[in-house]
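Journal club prep, shared notes

We agreed each person brings one worked example of a sequence with its structure written out as tokens. Mine is procollagen-proline 3-dioxygenase. I'm keeping it raw so we can talk through how to read the token line rather than staring at a rendered picture. Sequence first:
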Amino acid sequence: MLPSREMGAKSLKPPRLILHNFLTSEECKELEFIHKSSSTVGYRPNVFSTTLSHLIATNSSPFLIPFVPIREKLKEKVENFFGCEYELCIEFTGLISWCRGACIGWHSDDNRPYLKQRHFTAVCYLNSYGKDFKGGLFHFQDGEPTTLVPMAGDVAIYTADSCNIHAVDEIIEGERLTLTLWFSRDSGHDEDAKLISLLSKTMLHSSINMPEVKPPMLASIKGLLSDSTEILMEPLQLVRGNELFKQEFVNILHALQAVQFHHWKGSDLPNVQYEVQPGDVIRLSKSQQEAVRSLESQFLKDHQAVEMIFSCTSCSRNQQNFDWERFSATIVALKDYSCKLHKELLMSLPYWRSHGIIYSVPPECS
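Then the structure, token by token:
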């Protein structure tokens, strides 16, 4: 009888666990949508990140809900594998994408004095090597496996100390996206307590009977288009080619959510006719075309950066099949999706406060 993958991995020195297809394709795509519509400049060049505290700060708290069951499954898997049931807290949860030029040399995840509270790491790959990006292979310095080829849905779990020194090759093309969690035995570094406190403050006046979804707002974007922050926070409309979509979005982040939701769900919407009313889409006048060119010269100085942020090369299928009717239907679907998550968050928060942890609240309790 052959040993299971977990048993085989557990016998390795240093200890590490590789799980294939741990996340479903839909879970990966949902987290990708959240990251692409919410991320900010990361901790290294050509890296973008989305932390749970950042989602709260940008009025995107409902997007925490899809993380909850995944965090629970990962914590249980880490505790079972390393034999520390009920001993761990989640120290950090974040979506991290590495774009062309990003890389990191040999290191352990606790290699700074301020990171010593990190005891275990879980890295979930949300897209695939060769299909979505080139480069970006993950290497362990010692032990087996020596190299991981990132594939969507796979998870690598390992100790965060010097037993698992690792490196990541430079990204040559595309964007490499992961969900990364660190776990600690030190309850003083429990991420849940901080998040519950932030949620309690930001949702103080929200009511389950009137679950109004607030539009997203921009957090600090120092270092990225900082001279144009005011314009990014103003209402705007979308242009495609020489056509103007008349619906107004609250700010750039609101528009970005709609565009990325269309990329994720647009092709999956039922084939119901959603009629664009006369006047909803108009041709640009000459003065409007000049205004668009002026904005392009101001914001699109670095086309490589634009490709990194919007992953233009991966959107070719959606670009070819684009129509305003389906995009209009997508906006309605996005509102329904956001309302559903917002309502679930409002129902869950009292239980999280009561127990001091973030967990999946059973439907019968809510």
